């Protein structure tokens, strides 16, 4: 077990996991716990530092998440971020102005007093920070000094160096805060004097140990999708429990051309894994018949998956767990995690689970972002074609055939998408972008082919850059490449006479169209 341990108390911010991620990147072990966790429980975790996250509430609201003042008695360095700052100010005797409206966005913070958090940052000029505040601190608590201000916020950062308690109104964990990463590292290493003794190898060891303990001598079934996440989850479980792991690969008829096959071959060739291949095209496609609404599609697919896993599990007398390669962005966008943050889409592997499911979930990658999973995969010695594989959503092509999903429309999309994959690989762009794929639109447009008029479908090309899928931007592919993909699709795929390139960032759009 690493020596340094940061406990992050989550008050429901969408970016709490980014704090954990930055802490991990700095080489320090961290755990996120819900805001209902009491100080006695936190004390038992033996944290060497505590970070209080932001959150959407106002401390003035009746239902606002509460703070256990016992945390202050633990005598470990504390950093409060945004809502966490309000809580600290409120409980330590500061004065707050309560406001139910919020201000978001960039601001320039001026440094007002020396602070361990500012170490190595040029304090003569201001620094760009990502601000988010409703309530604000008017007068800092006794013992605190104001260490930073913006033009609209006098008390943007405060510190009590003696007690090692720090608070900032902005989000140092997001990329838009220019010196944010430095500030967080300063909190860890200058203020709290932690030791960077956590690595991907130690993550692998601790996850393997935890899973072995949790599963005991029972059996686990693992939903293999053919993507990197479930593959890494399976390999970790294989390490933990050997061949008491039973993998199930479901062909739901919604896969892209060749999806999964290489990975299955790799797993079978390298590990002693029990694998069942289930042909379920008919079950999925018949239930999707006539369904156009995206959330309904996702729920139907999620339910059919779980039904199959339940059926397969019944054939294995002792299987009590279902393992999934769920990642953090799937969790945060699907359910209000451990705090109150808003639902965006119900990703099938989280939000669509029916309440009647008999298996307990096991999700070894639930705290990680995709690039961290890639690092775990590399740590486990997996080959490049797995480590660098683009994400593919659980509901598959069903959410890329907009509108009704039929076999014919899937076949058209599969051919167009295969051209996109080939061209991205051949041009070297596959490794440079986060994800690239084709989407079949439920529209027909007029074209001209030879001497004749055509009235056919449109394919949208979606290629994005991202670091963690929480935000994304359209990839600036060379126009010649876009042109080549477009003419190949129009010439080679019957039924398509137009290709458009999607230039929408996330937010406000999402990566997938449904
Ligand atoms: P969005 O569309 O939410 O996608 O911006 C973010 C990332 O998640 C993938 N995605 C999914 N993955 N089940 C999954 O396993 C799903 O239901 C799902 N929906 C979206 C998407 O491909 C992108 O990488």
Automatic annotation (TrEMBL):
Keyword Lipid metabolism belongs to the record: no
Reactions catalysed, as given in the entry: XMP + L-glutamine + ATP + H2O = GMP + L-glutamate + AMP + diphosphate + 2 H(+)
Keywords for the protein's UniProt record, in alphabetical order: ATP-binding, Glutamine amidotransferase, GMP biosynthesis, Ligase, Nucleotide-binding, Purine biosynthesis
Record pathway: Purine metabolism; GMP biosynthesis; GMP from XMP (L-Gln route): step 1/1
EC number: 6.3.5.2
Positions bound to ATP: 225-231
PROSITE patterns to which the protein is assigned, alphabetical: GATASE_TYPE_1 (PS51273), GMPS_ATP_PPASE (PS51553)
Residues annotated as transmembrane: none
An example molecular function term from Gene Ontology annotations: ATP binding
Active-site positions on this chain: 82, 171, 173
InterPro entries: Class_I_gatase-like, GATASE, GMP_synth_C, GMP_synth_GATase, GMP_synthase, GMPS_ATP_PPase_dom, Rossmann-like_a/b/a_fold
Annotated ranges, domain GMPS ATP-PPase: 198-389
Enzyme kind, highest EC tier: ligase
Gene Ontology cellular component list: cytosol
Role of this protein: Catalyzes the synthesis of GMP from XMP.
Assembly: Homodimer.
Name of this protein: GMP synthase [glutamine-hydrolyzing]
Organism expressing this protein natively: Candidatus Desulfovibrio trichonymphae
Protein encoded by which gene: guaA
């Amino acid at each position: 077990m690493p020596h340094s341990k940061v406990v992050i108390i989550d008050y429901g911010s969408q970016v709490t996991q980014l704090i954990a991620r930055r802490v991990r990147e700095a080489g320090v072990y961290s755990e996120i716990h819900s805001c209902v966790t009491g100080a006695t429980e936190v004390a038992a975790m033996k944290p060497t530092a505590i970070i209080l996250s932001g959150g959407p509430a106002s401390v003035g609201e009746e239902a606002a998440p509460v703070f256990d003042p016992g945390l202050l008695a633990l005598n470990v360095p504390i950093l409060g971020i945004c809502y966490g700052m309000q809580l600290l100010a409120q409980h330590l005797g500061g004065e707050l102005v309560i406001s139910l409206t919020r201000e978001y966005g960039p601001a320039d913070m001026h440094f007002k007093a020396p602070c361990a958090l500012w170490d190595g940052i040029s304090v003569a000029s201001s620094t760009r920070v990502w601000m988010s505040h409703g309530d604000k601190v008017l007068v800092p608590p006794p013992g605190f000094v104001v260490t930073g201000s913006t033009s609209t916020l006098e008390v943007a950062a405060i510190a009590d160096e003696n007690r090692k308690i720090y608070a900032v109104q902005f989000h140092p964990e997001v990329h838009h805060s220019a010196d944010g990463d430095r500030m967080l590292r300063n909190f860890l290493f200058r203020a709290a004097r932690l030791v960077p003794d956590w690595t991907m190898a130690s993550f692998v060891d601790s996850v393997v140990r935890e899973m072995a303990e949790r599963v005991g001598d029972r059996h686990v079934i693992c939903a293999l999708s053919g993507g990197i996440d479930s593959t890494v989850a399976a390999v970790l479980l294989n390490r933990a429990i050997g061949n008491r792991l039973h993998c199930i690969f479901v062909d739901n008829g919604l896969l892209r051309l060749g999806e999964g096959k290489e990975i299955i071959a790799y797993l079978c060739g390298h590990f002693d894994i029990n694998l069942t291949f289930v042909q379920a095209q008919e079950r999925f496609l018949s239930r999707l018949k006539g369904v156009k609404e995206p959330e309904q599609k996702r729920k139907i697919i999620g339910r059919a998956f779980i039904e199959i896993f339940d059926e397969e599990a019944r054939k294995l007398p002792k299987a009590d767990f279902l393992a999934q390669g769920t990642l953090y962005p799937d969790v945060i966008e699907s359910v209000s995690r451990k705090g109150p943050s808003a639902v965006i889409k119900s990703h099938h592997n989280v939000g669509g689970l029916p309440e009647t499911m008999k298996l307990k979930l096991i999700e070894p990658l639930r705290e990680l972002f995709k690039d961290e999973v890639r690092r775990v995969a590399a740590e486990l010695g997996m080959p490049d074609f797995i480590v660098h594989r683009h994400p593919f959503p659980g509901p598959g092509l069903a959410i890329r055939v907009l509108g009704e999903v039929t076999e014919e429309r899937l076949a058209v999309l599969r051919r167009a998408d295969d051209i996109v994959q080939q061209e991205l690989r051949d041009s070297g762009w596959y490794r440079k972008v986060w994800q690239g794929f084709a989407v079949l639109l439920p529209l027909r447009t007029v074209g001209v082919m030879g001497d004749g008029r055509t009235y056919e479908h449109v394919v949208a090309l979606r290629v994005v850059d991202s670091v963690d899928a929480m935000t994304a931007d359209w990839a600036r592919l060379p126009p010649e490449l876009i042109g080549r993909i477009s003419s190949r699709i129009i010439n080679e795929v019957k039924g398509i006479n137009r290709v458009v390139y999607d230039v929408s960032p996330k937010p406000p759009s999402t990566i997938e169209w449904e």
